[in-house]
Specification:
single chain; alpha+beta; Pnp Oxidase, Chain A; 9-stranded antiparallel sheet; 27% helix
Length: 206
């Protein structure tokens, strides 16, 4: 019988490389005006497996992985230092799709972090210096006073990247493409990286 909604997700129509397939979906979501297209949930865990999750922004992706930036001394940074295994989820409700990514995280090079930091608005650059992310603070006023002090200190001058702030790259070991379907018979296609660097593909039950 005819099914309403999106067409089926068929293996033969997908690219054998999941990064290329992600790029296709990313462009399609962009064309569909998905709100906050680059927002992704990042899950990390302590060394003994206690999980935590928060939203971060995807800043770039390529054949090596998915890049985001943060304070290395934040909770997620401390967890990643001890347990580099992490997961990402993109949820694009406007197109009824999700992408789930798992892998290992490593810091990007200082040069890559410097280059990205230079593109940030000055207010965001100063904010990276002001905030000891995830640490307790006495009041918001203290934060705002420090921001004003640094605005004056760096007036008319370049703002350097703090050594404790920079990028991470999640290098995927598996990527799942999820698409909603009629009667909740959703399509789920899982790519898994093999030891030789190639990718396998299989369908999962919804």
């Amino acid at each position: 019988m005819p099914e309403p909604g999106l067409p089926p997700l068929i293996e033969k129509d997908l690219d054998p490389n999941p990064i290329t397939q992600f790029h296709r979906w990313f462009e399609q979501a962009q064309a569909a005006n998905v709100l906050q297209l680059d927002a992704m949930a990042l899950a990390t865990a302590t060394k003994d497996g206690k999980p935590s999750v928060r939203m971060v922004l995807l800043k770039s992706f390529d054949s090596e992985g998915f890049v985001f930036y943060t304070n290395y001394d934040s909770r997620k940074g401390k967890e990643l230092a001890l347990n580099p295994a992490a997961a990402l989820v993109f949820h694009w409700p406007e197109v009824e799709r999700q992408v789930r990514i798992e892998g290992l995280v490593e810091k990007v090079s200082p040069e890559e972090s410097d280059a990205y930091f230079e593109t940030r608005p000055r207010e965001s650059q100063i904010g990276a210096h002001v905030s000891a992310q995830s640490e307790p603070i006495g009041s918001r006023g203290k934060l705002e006073r420090r921001f004003e002090e640094l605005q004056k200190q760096y007036e008319g001058r370049p703002i350097p990247r703090p050594s404790y702030w920079g990028g991470y790259r999640l290098k995927p070991t598996q990527i799942e493409f999820f698409q909603s379907r009629f009667a909740r018979l959703n399509d789920r296609i899982l790519y898994e990286r093999q030891e030789d660097g190639t990718w396998s593909m299989k369908r999962l039950a919804p």
